[in-house]
Amino acid sequence: MRAHIDHLADLTRGELNRSIFTDPTVYEQELQRIFARCWLLLGHESMLPRPNDFFTTYMGEDAVIVTRKPDGSIGCYLNMCRHRGNRVCRADAGNARAFTCPFHGWTFSNDGRLSSVPGYKEIYLEQLDLDAHGLVPVAQIGNYKGLLFATFDASAPSLTDYLGDMAWYLDMMLDRREGGIEVLGGAHKWLVKTNWKYPADNFVGDSYHGPVSHKSAWMSGFEGMPRRKSGYGYEGFQVCPGGGHGFGVRWAEDKDVLVDMALPEFQAYERSRVDEAERRLGALRGTHLSPMHATIFPNMSLLWQGGALRVWHPKGPNLTEAWGWCFVDRDAPPEHKALMRVHQLQRHGTSGTWEADDVDNWVQCTNASKGYVARQYTQNLEMGLTDEIPDPKQIHPDLRGRLGKFQSEINQRGFYKRWAELMADASAPSTPVMPHTAHACEGAAR
Ligand code: FES
Ligand SMILES: [Fe+2]
Question: Among 179, 219, 386, 436, which is least packed by CB within 10 angstroms?
Answer without folding.
Answer: 386
